[in-house]
Specification:
This protein is an alpha/beta fold. It has an 8-stranded mixed sheet, sandwiched between helices. It has an 8-stranded mixed sheet with strand order 13-15-18-17-16-19-20-14, covered by helices on one side. The chain is globular and about 90 Å long. Helix 7 packs across helix 8 and helix 19 crosses helix 20. The longest helix has 28 residues. It binds N~2~-sulfamoyl-L-arginine and zinc ion. The site of N~2~-sulfamoyl-L-arginine has 16 residues, from helix 12, helix 13 and strand 12.
């Protein structure tokens, strides 16, 4: 035994020496950032799933080789000797060291600043297709220290914003593990491929027109910034538990593994309570701000439809993929147990199709890789029931730059397939896929016919006989009544793969470009997803449609409106006089127009045509967001608003998820009904914060509406809205948590009066004022305003006040305080002194005389899209000034 150990150690020493030389060569080539602190890669042999699970929880496992029964672990240089002495079978293999040269942070990866800049540039390049979203804060953002001041958590929501909700959602996220450097690149490449393809690539076009695609490029920006310095940081940067190595090593670092921190089956297999270990699960379920924000963001977009033990309905929409590195796997739940989930067959069918695109090894996470608990995919599937996948992309954490294009090329088609099936992933993957769909069918004369061909492949992943195919023109094939059957080229649908063909007539199609959709089914009638291609109808010379977009009420031209003509997908932006001209083929066309602050409008006309008028109706100034979990509050509010003749848009969170910033900022006043014990999620707070910072006016109502501390809105309250208890110091701890009812009060008799007394013990400071009183003289709410933001926080909803007339007059008082809902106006640095202030206001007032009670800042909009906010923009909004306030 002794002899064997000595021989082993001698071999280890040689291998280690070779590897450390390689490492120093690598770091000499790239002096900054630093190469990571040294470690050894060792093969540890395991004999059972339980032993594998223990090793995963305790060490930094890079690879699992199930066939040979070992894991590849990154460990301190003295680990091989120690483990061997303890009787563990270990091996150091030169191949592992060569496969993973200890490299510094590769130069091609730009870091968080670059990732965020790329996201921002996509958002500004494709404003009609991208909505940038702030869904929370990172740990360092809330606890800044010498390591940095953290970041906001950011996402892009892709999809044609002119199309109505609800739409199926594909949620893609990357980089929850910081060192997995290739993953943000894949996410960005995927977003870019769709956006760049819009209008030219038929599939990208229909995917963006009919679905929503969320892309989180990095879910762990704090950790990524540590990795940028050359460290193999995996976790977030919460260093409040335990004292870990600094600088961090790959096997000893502070932080919580965010992929062990989710609140479904938290703290089970494959996670550890050792705070410096790579799989540290944190102090509790979803203890980390990044996890909370992510869960709230997902839960706000995808309803929790799953019932434990009950298989999901096959028509369930939506889907999630979390990108990780590395190992080339497609994994699905469960991770926390080796038992199959109630939807295992469905998850497997989807997963195998992904693998058909990227060529990876596919299987349930726990039995294919190793057990993990608290990961994103277990939580997403476990709570919402939608299919959730981990893609382990590439072959290393600090993947060499030259490999990235290949990884993108393999995975973008798999991700596009995820978007393609998001409408009903469980059912669409029971049907066959199509191949050989032509990118373009060319052109056909109006009134003739054309041929379409493709291949139905029942065997792309699972077996199945191709049973049929159909095509549709301009409407997706799933739209009832649109399908035109195609036939098997060999006359019979009887094999797994069938070439299909059909002759379609162009009669009735207008000249110009049309989309042709195709799909196939198996012999049991399961339809697969759709593919699309273009067809151009010719035979008419182009002619013009010109006209104007105007305000339906005032007739004022609307510059900067987007005009889209279908079926040609031709687009233009209206000029300063609201005019547009588009060259289209002769025939019937639908002209849709979109403008900030207006509901979309459309007219249909025959080309050529001039003087076409598209009249847009101004959105009401008030958005009433019904986020009351009990659903009881809205009726009193809608009745009171109607009683005041005050138009409003009603938005039910239960039906369409939370409104995002882009929705909120089209409104002058947002009334948010939090309801009984409602909690404002991080994502909701971030949207409201952005709205307020853009000059929004908010009325937040509800009993014990809680604004959890640490969220964006509590920051706003804590700095700007203070309350004091008589005789004590300013108490801001109540703010943002249990704002109006944080005091212990007895709830004898009439509940609402007892609650209403609570605010009376607070004295508002810093400009906050009591706004209204209950009939018994008790203060019922607080108000705060500065030069752009105005907030009323209402301890009780109107719903608790007796009498329709009283409710109406209380609401009127609050609306008057919030300000004249003067429409969707614009806020700008008119004098370009770098701030929006009273000087700007004076300029605006000089241009358009407005009563001082109506003088409000205008929200930030470059309405004429000339890259600056200027007098032209002000001219556009001038029509909104001086509107009558509710009296
Ligand atoms: O351990 C993880 O979190 C993932 N591997 S990684 O190397 N990127 O760290 C795998 C997670 C797989 N999911 C489940 N097992 N549920
Ligand atoms: Zn990972």
């Amino acid at each position: 035994m002794k002899n064997k150990n000595t021989r082993l150690l001698a071999r280890l020493a040689v291998v280690l020496a070779v590897w450390l030389v390689l490492a120093s060569v690598a770091s000499a080539q790239k002096p900054t950032p630093q190469a990571p602190p040294p470690f050894v890669l060792i093969r540890i042999y395991y004999s059972s799933q339980a032993e594998l699970q223990r090793i995963v929880a305790e060490s930094d496992v890079w690879e699992v080789n199930r066939a040979q029964g070992y894991v590849l672990v990154a460990a301190p240089p003295d680990a091989p000797e120690k483990l061997a002495k303890a009787g563990q079978k270990v091996e150091v293999n030169i191949k592992d060291a060569l496969a993973h040269p200890l490299s510094a942070y590769p130069a091609c990866y730009g870091g968080v600043d670059s990732l965020y800049a790329q996201m921002a540039s996509l958002a500004s390049a494709y404003p009609a297709l991208v909505e940038p979203v702030d869904y929370g804060a990172s740990w360092l953002r809330l606890h800044p220290d010498s390591r940095g001041s953290g970041d906001r958590l950011q996402a892009l929501i892709l999809g044609n914003r002119a199309v109505a909700e609800p739409r199926a959602l594909f949620f893609l996220m990357a980089n929850i593990h910081a060192r997995e450097l290739a993953t943000p690149e894949v996410a960005l490449a995927f977003a870019r491929s769709l956006l760049q393809g819009y209008g030219t690539d038929a599939d990208a076009t229909w995917l963006l027109d009919t679905q929503r695609i969320v892309v989180i490029v990095t879910a762990n920006p704090d950790g990524h910034r540590v990795a940028e310095q050359g460290y193999y940081q995996r976790k977030n940067t919460n260093n409040t538990v335990g004292t870990c190595a600094n600088p961090p090593t790959t096997f000893n670092q502070s932080g919580v593994d965010l992929n062990r921190n989710h609140s479904y089956q938290w703290g089970g297999a494959g996670a550890t309570s050792s705070s410096c270990a790579q799989t540290y699960h944190g102090v509790g379920p979803a203890s980390e701000i990044e996890t909370q924000a992510l869960q709230e963001f997902i839960a706000g977009l995808i309803p929790s439809r799953r019932v434990e033990g009950v298989p999901m309905p096959t028509d369930t929409p939506d889907m999630l993929v979390s990108l990780h590195s590395y190992g080339e796997y497609v994994l699905w739940p469960w991770g926390y147990t080796t038992e199959p989930s109630t939807d295992d067959a469905g998850l497997q069918a989807i997963g195998r199709r992904f693998a058909a695109f990227n060529g990876y090894t596919a299987g349930p996470a726990s039995t294919t890789l190793y057990d993990t608990s608290g990961d994103t995919t277990d939580w997403t599937y476990g709570v919402t029931g939608v299919p959730a996948y981990t893609f382990e992309v590439g072959t290393d954490f600090f993947q060499p730059c030259g490999d990235v294009p290949g990884i993108i090329a393999k995975n973008v088609p798999a991700l596009r397939y995820a978007a393609r099936i998001a409408r009903a992933p469980y059912s669409l993957t029971q049907g066959p896929d199509l191949t050989n769909v032509p990118g373009n069918l060319g052109s056909a004369l109006a009134g003739t016919s054309f041929t379409v061909t493709a291949t139905v492949s029942g065997t792309v992943a699972l077996s199945g006989i191709a049973g049929g195919a159909e095509a549709s023109i301009d409407q997706p094939t799933w739209t009832p009544g649109t399908g035109i059957p195609l036939s098997a080229t060999d006359g019979q649908f009887d094999t797994a793969v069938e070439n299909v063909t059909g002759t379609l007539t162009t009669t009735g199609l207008t000249p110009g470009r049309h989309m042709v959709f195709l799909r196939g089914r198996d012999t049991s009638g399961h339809w697969g997803p759709v593919w699309a291609t273009w067809l151009t109808i010719t035979g008419n010379t182009p002619s013009a449609i010109s006209g104007k977009v105007v305000d339906a009420t005032t007739g004022t031209p609307i510059p900067g409106a987007q005009v889209v003509i279908s079926p040609d997908a031709t687009a233009a932006t209206t000029a300063a006089d609201g005019g547009f001209t588009l060259s289209v083929p002769a025939g019937a066309h639908t002209i849709r127009a979109l403008a900030v602050g207006y509901a979309p409008g459309q007219v249909t006309t025959n080309a050529p045509a001039s003087n076409v008028t598209v009249a847009l109706t101004h959105l009401p100034c008030i958005l009433l967001v019904d986020a009351d979990p009990s659903g009881r509050a809205a009726a009193s509010w809608t009745a009171a608003l109607n009683g005041l003749n005050q138009p409003f848009t009603l938005w039910r969170v239960a039906d369409r998820s939370s409104p995002l910033l882009n929705t909120l900022r089209d409104y002058g006043i947002v009334i948010w009904l939090g309801g009984e014990n409602g909690v404002l999620s991080e994502a909701q707070q971030a949207a409201l914060e952005g709205y307020l910072d853009g000059g929004g006016h908010l009325l937040l109502s509800g009993n014990r509406v809680s604004v959890p501390s640490g969220g964006p809105l509590s920051r706003f309250f804590a700095t700007d809205l203070h309350v004091t208890s008589p005789g004590t110091a300013t108490d801001t701890s109540l703010i943002g948590q249990d704002f109006l009812t944080g005091q212990s009060i007895s709830l004898a008799g009439s509940d609402h009066l007892a609650y209403a007394q609570a605010p009376a013990v607070f004295t508002p400071t810093n400009g906050a004022a009591t706004v209204w009183q209950y009939p018994n003289g008790v203060t019922g709410g607080l108000a705060y305003g500065d030069d752009k933001r105005r907030v009323v926080v209402l301890g009780l909803g109107l719903e608790t006040v007796d009498g329709a007339a009283t409710r109406q007059s209380l609401l009127n008082a609050m609306l008057r305080w919030l300000g004249c809902p003067g429409g969707c106006v614009l806020q700008g640095d008119v004098n370009r002194d770098g701030k929006v202030d009273a000087a700007d206001m004076a300029l605006v007032s000089a241009l358009w005389p407005v009563a001082s009670s109506n003088a409000r800042y205008i929200r930030h909009r470059d309405l004429d899209s000339n890259g600056r906010i200027d007098v032209v923009d002000l001219a556009i909004i001038s029509r909104d000034w001086g509107k009558t306030c509710p009296q």
